[in-house]
Amino acid sequence: MEDLLKKLEAISIRFDQVSGLIVDPDIISDMKRYVKLNREYKELDVVVKAYNEYKNILSNLDES
Predict the structure, then answer these.
(1) Reduced to 3 states, what is the DSSP secondary structure of residue 1?
(2) I need a labelling partner for 30 at 20 to 30 A (CA). Which of 4, 38, 45, 63 fits?
(3) pTM recorded for the entire structure
(4) How far apart are CA 32 and CA 60, in angstroms?
């Protein structure tokens, strides 16, 4: 289980990196790279949202 959480944390970090890159003017001007990063962003977004929801649930359980 701990390995899975480490992988999800790594995905979350990559999501943050991609989020920053897709607003970079140099990336936006390179349409091929921008499209690739935008696609990656959309794929990671689903996983990161589920991961954040899971962390929130665990936090709520700990507080109860």
Answers:
(1) coil
(2) 45
(3) 0.85
(4) 42
